Automatic annotation (TrEMBL):
<dbReference type="Pfam" id="PF01637">
    <property type="entry name" value="ATPase_2"/>
</dbReference>
<dbReference type="InterPro" id="IPR011335">
    <property type="entry name" value="Restrct_endonuc-II-like"/>
</dbReference>
<dbReference type="Pfam" id="PF03008">
    <property type="entry name" value="DUF234"/>
</dbReference>
<dbReference type="GO" id="GO:0005524">
    <property type="term" value="F:ATP binding"/>
</dbReference>
<dbReference type="InterPro" id="IPR027417">
    <property type="entry name" value="P-loop_NTPase"/>
</dbReference>
<dbReference type="InterPro" id="IPR011579">
    <property type="entry name" value="ATPase_dom"/>
</dbReference>
<dbReference type="InterPro" id="IPR004256">
    <property type="entry name" value="DUF234"/>
</dbReference>
<protein>
    <submittedName>
        <fullName>ATPase AAA</fullName>
    </submittedName>
</protein>
Length: 488
């Protein structure tokens, strides 16, 4: 298998870490994001790039005594001139060691900083509940040492946001920066598969999403079907088992959490429908689990774009945030018995292959189309889009079947972009354009003075529709095929 780098398009994140490592002051950065998003590899690479004395410790699920032994070994290896004797007796002693070592280097005229990464911080806090207070007091006493660069990282997003970043947390106002790593978008994910056609790239994104640890499991020299057979539709592989491990990671989760994800993956979107599908009486019965899954970034709650500012909107639908989890719960989880018996090929031929186009269409292709808007706003130097402006991108739906796939609004809530997405077996024609205009008119949304119309199509556009777009001056109808989506 070809090696795939986990740092595709992590330019801004690497710059943030490099700036902290090279700054003239002390730094304490909080780095967090879902398991598999590439935090650990990113931090490790940043330390290598900086070429500074550095300690990298990844906490695990074990006792405090064993953690302290491992931490001592890591310190001995990182700072061989520190002449460490016995193991650290406590985490307080470890942090005191860091300040003494930094002072010792300053006293000898060595001004280069030392970098310390504590990865998977929540595991360490589990065995020493007072850890964050220890760090608080230690940082207050040592934050003026310019040669201390501390990075606290974690995959348990809810813990990092509530216990580390929240205004009530001990480390509030101590951090010098916070970096949340998000999944790669559709175009960044495609960089893992340079040989794939645009359709294959979109299929890979629909299946794997944007988590680097998932993307690197596929061999870019093999097609989608062969990769699925090798890495998903067989027992004891990383991808076949990862969703179960994700749920086990948080001990607060019970069987209801997995049941909710399974229901959402099979099309239940409303809280009441989800509750009914898993045998609960009402949406209130699953409210804590819905909140927990959202906190950890596994579930997203969508509302029509016109209701984004209304936190208590009752017009909400739930989607699995990660494409691979959605794929796994829809196709792999129900077929576990077949896969366990080596019948993954049957799952591919009878279940996945006939339905893959429909699966790609929604929500993945629609999600990618909305990401495309952000990409042209951030990256395009074309004069064509100089007056394209929006602050929110989402979708809209109303009574009956009325729905608009892509809607962008400005700071006044006016619609500046409306779009339609079609993953079909034929080119998009003028009827889709007319239907989009009609749906927008019936929705009663407030339009900006000169809205844009974006049509996204798997197989291009009819000659008539192409002529209409070309004849506009100024051009406001933008036809986007897959080739164009991957050129931005």
């Amino acid at each position: 298998m070809e090696n795939a780098s986990p740092f595709y398009n992590r330019v801004r994140e690497r710059k943030s870490l490099a700036d902290a490592l090279n700054s003239p002051r002390s730094e304490m950065l909080i780095v967090y994001g879902r398991r598999g998003v590439g935090k650990s590899a990113l931090l490790d690479q940043a330390l290598k790039d900086a070429n500074l004395p550095s300690l990298y410790y990844r906490a695990t699920r074990r006792t405090l005594a064993l953690q302290l032994e491992a931490l001592t070994d890591a310190a001995r290896e990182a700072f061989p001139d520190a002449f460490l004797g016995q193991s650290f007796e406590s985490l307080t002693v470890f942090f005191d060691f860091l300040s003494h070592y930094a002072a010792q280097r300053e006293d000898t005229g060595n001004q280069s900083p030392i970098a310390v990464v504590i990865d998977e911080l929540p595991y360490l806090a589990d065995v020493d509940p007072g850890l964050l207070t220890v760090i608080q007091h230690w940082w207050d006493a040592n934050k003026r040492r310019p040669n201390l660069k501390i990075f606290l990282a974690g995959s348990y997003v809810a813990f990092m946001e509530r216990q580390v970043l929240d205004a009530s947390a001990p480390l509030y106002n101590r951090r010098t920066g916070a970096l949340k790593l998000e999944a790669l978008d559709y175009a960044e994910a495609a960089l893992f598969f340079p040989r794939y056609s645009p359709q294959e790239k979109m299929a890979a994104y629909a299946i794997l999403g944007g988590m680097p640890s998932y993307l690197e499991q596929f061999d870019p020299a093999q097609d989608i079907a062969d990769n699925l057979r090798a890495t998903v539709l067989r027992r004891n592989t990383y991808l076949s088992e990862e969703p179960d491990w994700l749920l086990l990671e948080d001990r607060r989760r019970d069987v209801t959490h997995g049941s909710i994800l399974r229901a959402v993956a099979t099309g239940q979107r409303k809280p009441s429908d989800i509750a009914r599908a898993i045998g609960k009486n009402s949406a209130q019965d699953i409210a804590p689990q819905l909140a927990s899954l959202q906190e950890q970034g596994l579930l997203i709650r969508e509302v029509p774009i016109t209701e984004m500012s209304q936190p208590r909107s009752r017009t909400s639908l739930y989607y699995i945030a990660d494409n691979y989890l959605d794929f796994w719960y829809r196709y792999v989880d129900p077929a576990r018995s077949l896969i366990a018996r080596g019948l993954g090929e049957r799952v591919w031929e009878q279940t996945i292959s006939p339905n893959l186009g429909e699966y790609i269409s929604r929500p993945s292709f629609e999600r990618a189309s909305r990401q495309f808007l952000w990409r042209i706003l951030e990256n395009s130097n074309s004069e064509e889009f100089t007056d394209l402006s929006f602050v929110n991108v989402g979708t809209w739906w109303g009574a009956g079947d009325r729905e608009i796939d892509v809607v962008a609004t400005n700071e006044r809530g006016q619609v500046t972009v409306a779009g339609s997405c079609k993953w079909t077996e034929s080119p998009m024609d003028v009827r889709e354009y007319a239907a989009l205009q009609s749906d927008l008119a019936l929705a009663g949304l407030t339009l900006s003075e000169a809205p844009w119309w974006f049509l996204f199509s798997r197989l291009g556009f009819s000659p008539h529709l192409t002529e209409i777009a070309a004849a506009q001056n100024p051009r406001r109808l933008i036809l986007v095929d897959l080739d164009q989506m991957y050129r931005v």
